[in-house]
Sequence to fold (79 residues):
Amino acid sequence: MSGEINVIREEVKKYIDSADDHVVRMVYALLEADAKDDSWGEMPDDVAAELEESIRQADNGEKINHADVVKKYPQWFTK
Fold:
């Protein structure tokens, strides 16, 4: 495992520790789906519904750019 990956792992752990429940559930669903190699079939229904809603919102232009997210949640982007 490279040193860069170790740094990324530590940063992800920091983000998770400060993330709200919604974000933690989404990250968990992504990791669980990857582990099972079935991204939609094994995902909890409520998480799949939230992701589908997020995709719909993004398709409709209802999204926030990265710079605004960094301003709103600076604790997620500290080094």
